[in-house]
Design a protein that fits this description.
Structural class of chain A: mainly alpha
Largest sheet of chain A: none
Strand order of the largest sheet of chain B: 6-7-8-3-9-10
Order of helices and strands of chain A: HHHHHHHHHHHHHH
Number of domains of chain A: 1
Number of strands of chain B: 22
Structural class of chain B: alpha/beta
Helix content of chain B: 25-40%
Distance between the termini of chain B: 38 Å
CATH topology of chain A: ABC transporter involved in vitamin B12 uptake, BtuC
CATH superfamily of the largest domain in chain B: P-loop containing nucleotide triphosphate hydrolases
Shape of chain A: globular
Strand content of chain B: 25-35%
Oligomer: heterodimer
Number of strands of chain A: 0
Number of domains of chain B: 2
CATH architecture of the largest domain in chain B: 3-Layer(aba) Sandwich
Strand content of chain A: under 5%
Number of helices of chain B: 17
Largest sheet of chain B: 6 strands, mixed
Number of helices of chain A: 14
Amino acid sequence: MLKTVEIWCLSLGALLLSMLLIAAFIFTTGNSPSEVFHSLYRGAFGSWFSWQNTLVRAAPLMLTALCTALPARVGLIVIGGEGAMVVGGLTAAITGIAIQDAPSFMVMSAMMIVGGGCAGLWILAVGALRHYRNVNETISSLLLNYIAIAVLNFLVVGVLKDPATLNNPSTYSIGEKNMITSIGDSSVHWGLVYGLVVCLAMWFVARRTTFGFAADVTGGNIRAARLVGLPVAKIVLLSCFLGGAAAGLAGVIEIAAIQGRANSSLNAGYGYAGILVAFLARHNPLAIIPYALLLGGIQASGGLLQRAHDLPDATVAVFQGIIFMMILSSEMLYGRIKFLQPKSMIS
Amino acid sequence: MTEQPILEALSICKQFGDVRVLNNISLKLGRGTVHALLGENGAGKSTLVKCIMGYYRPDDGQLLFEGREAQIVSPEQATALGIGMVYQHFTLIPNMSIAENIVLSRPNLPAVINWPAEISQLEQRMGEMPFQFELRRSINSLSAGEKQKVEIIKQLLLNAKVLILDEPTSVLTPTEADEVLDKIYQLTRDGKLSVLIITHKFREVMKYADDVTVLRKGEYIGSAKVADVDPEKLAKMMVGEETLTQAPSRASHKNRRCVVQIDKLTVNNEQGLAAISNLDLELYAGEIIGIAGVSGNGQKQLTEVLGGQRAPLSGQLRVNGQAFGASRREMVEHQFYCLPEEPLRNACVANLSVADNIALRKFDSPAFTSMKWIVKRKAIRDFALDLIQQYKIRTAGPEQNIGALSGGNVQRAVLARELAQALSVLVVSNPCFGLDFKAVADIRARLLEARNQGTAVLLLSEDLDEILELSDRFFVISGGQLVYQTTPQEADLQTIGRYMGGH
């Protein structure tokens, strides 16, 4: 299929070009680009230890990417993954604290349902504002991020604050027994499997179900969707809900697998990096998996870059930004490169 | 009407990719004459005038202007030479005044514009113009006919000696069209102006043109003095020897069964103004009801309401006696389908494949799903392949994006989708707009066939000939109301024209 070839060529081209720009950036810091790229590789995929580090970071990225990718399929550019992750994590933590003495599988299920559900409603509100009141979804989802973070900060320094957490104000713990365990003796937790399963499931929904088909029609041309009588509002709202729920699940995992309590680690930027992953994957849930690994790897190597090359902390963000700009620019080349187009028929 | 032609095109060739769009086309525009350029869609008329205007560079051939070779490489240069063009779609900037529009289109505009001087200069020259306008009026406040006139005086004020008109009357009422063409015709009689007019209306050719040139599929078929030809001969030159689909004869239906009732329908447009007010209409099985009118009189909003793309402000829509809200379930239940104009904008998803677009009505029906939720891609593909053959849709394959197809083929694909099922109501809007003769004959035959099988058809069309040919009875819509009803047999063009113009 030429369409797939086109996506591969343009995505790889954009990545290559961003590597060149990144090399130029490294050069300006007085380092050797090849050495830094080598460290980048070692820090991300060079050893089992770095692989584990990468996988742990990739898990939430897969889920937050869906928060942009699923609404994008119905034509909405939602960047509220950060806020949805915070809402999901915070409500899950509250749930976990409230029922921490229940059997642990029940605590886990309740946290996932409440966290995913609340975050889903959070992004559903964005879709509803867009659909019924014509409020720009990008702006509203961005502003909702700030509101979510503000609510989180308010609660963790206020009523929910565990007095034992002085340096990093956090809520009380959900209890050691209710945490998600690691896979085998690695440091990778089962949250990675959640991410993979949700991505695969969403890929199936998007590609093979009537809902996925209807969503593609709605996203491609809402007038045509209305003409054939599709329930446009339902499709838009459900896509937003699913996206929000996925990001909420990322928050649940952050609480249940790593922190054990809600704190500012919920807004550590996974939501924003997820936007990048979604665009890299062109909103295809299956392609999100490898791109989440790539981005997870870049983030995992940040520490090594700082230590080995004396590069500033923000270097990783610069790399991400460059890749994002290149991928976005490559969007406008679709359909314009001649040899990648099917032979056109002119009547 | 003198010796040397003012504009001459000699053996123009133009190729896009592998496709020859113009093959050795020659044309002579005599000084002070009206020359009609006639041909089907895709014959190359627009490409030819775009070569003349400098939008395209011809691959081969020569242009002579006033007897001298002219290398026109840009529209600005064409304007400077004195060749002006009025496009089918208006190129005026709506929120600016007439004067501003005219001044802005002048070539070599200085960086700082001396508006008082420009306007007084324009005012002085307004006297010579065939149409009079208050220069400070904003384009927004003009009707379609007035805009067309402004486009024309804009070219005259830019000192055009040659005026190219691309289907100038397609948005005008018959009366307005005659007025505009009369004035233009008068201007050419004084020898001040020579006109090249692209049209497909034989009546205009016979009445206003001195000469005619016919193109077909990029080939030069011939030129003639209009006095020496008749419409039949022109039609033959345009289509060649191809046989057109024969329209089936009208079957008569005994009992008239009312299928659709529209009761006091009021619809607003985007600006929140009433586009349709208190419209009543009934559709009967086995009947084609036409709605004639100049575009912008509520046809678009009516189609949108019937197609479920717009919610009405008030009023009722009943199908088979039940309230109809244009949901997917109701559409299937009542076999109520709608084919709006501009299918790529209204009825297709450009970045989905031809197969997916053809399946848009049916992808969730039992034949295309397993376990109710899972789409059978192969069934969709097979269904599409069948219709692609049946409707002769030219595409690289069912997987090609529908946006890459030509307009006629998009229309065929959408028509295939809408007609590929049992129908009891069909709403169609300008189904033949921009299609060639063969496709038009084909589509009209299919509409008549649907009617004969008992479908209630509502046909909204800006092409009066189409209404007269297809409908059993028809209404004229003006200002969002049905102002006149008649049948094609009893129709009187002048009366219809008067109602279309809102008088």
